[in-house]
Specification:
This protein is an alpha/beta fold. The chain contains seven helices and eleven strands. The chain has a single domain, classed as Rossmann fold (3-Layer(aba) Sandwich).
């Protein structure tokens, strides 16, 4: 590792070795923050356009009223920060399976952490989002029968490329039906994916939601000197 790299924290977790590092990237002439799990990159601050758009696209589908939002996956905090930029958001709960990632934000090791943790509307919750989705009270978070105006998820690489095989049922008809039950009528489910739009998954979404769409988000890739793309899936619970 060259002197341009600084390991800010690393630890053993149930999923493997988790590392937060900072490096200077001469290609973009700025500091870059990266989260790695074992040998796999989970997030880089070089590529956050789609994570930000995930939040904006989800909330753009909702009326201008007080909104309660649930985000699955904290990472570098880009999606959570983007949610909080919307003044009509009344509350934001961010669920992450790794307490170490939550701690990085609370300790100020990640740039977005100070803003997120200082916002009284936001609460960071240590928990397994997928296990919570299976539990009748999993998304209540202390309020029995709680419903959400938007549930926004950025955890797995895509519905087919998972961080853990146990997450697979979430993307199946029963898992998505359970998720829809946690939304208010007309509420929005939004999902980030690193893969191109998947017609089969879009069809599965359509079994539990309406207004299903797979939006491609393009962004510059300085390493490949071309544009790259992610996908944001949007789906709405049937309004009353």
């Amino acid at each position: 590792m060259s002197s341009r790299f600084q390991v800010l924290d690393w630890c053993e977790t149930s999923l493997g070795v988790l590392m937060l590092r900072r490096r200077w990237d001469p290609a973009v002439d700025r500091e870059v923050y990266e989260i790695k799990l074992n040998d796999e990159f989970l997030m880089s601050s070089l590529f956050t356009v789609a994570e930000v758009e995930l939040a904006h696209l989800a909330l753009a589908e909702l009326p201008e009223q007080p909104l309660d939002v649930l985000v699955g996956g904290l990472g570098l905090g880009c999606t959570a920060k983007a949610v909080l930029e919307h003044p009509n958001v009344r509350s934001l709960f961010v669920v992450d399976a790794l307490p170490e990632v939550i701690g990085w934000h609370q300790r100020g090791l990640i740039p977005a952490g100070a803003e997120i943790t200082a916002d009284s509307r936001c609460e960071l919750v240590h928990g397994d989002f997928f296990a919570m989705s299976r539990s009748p009270a999993g998304f209540d978070l202390g309020v029995p029968g709680r419903r959400w105006h938007a549930i926004v998820v950025d955890i797995d690489h895509s519905p087919r490329h998972l961080l853990h095989a146990g997450n697979a049922d979430f993307y199946q008809p029963d898992g998505l039906r359970r998720l829809a039950e946690r939304l208010h009528p007309g509420g929005v489910f939004a999902l980030w994916s690193n893969d191109p739009p998947d017609e089969e998954f879009t069809a599965v979404l359509g079994q539990s939601f309406v207004d299903v769409a797979a939006k491609i988000v393009n962004f510059p890739n300085p390493f490949q000197d071309r544009e790259s793309a992610n996908t944001v899936y949007l789906a709405r619970k049937v309004p009353l």
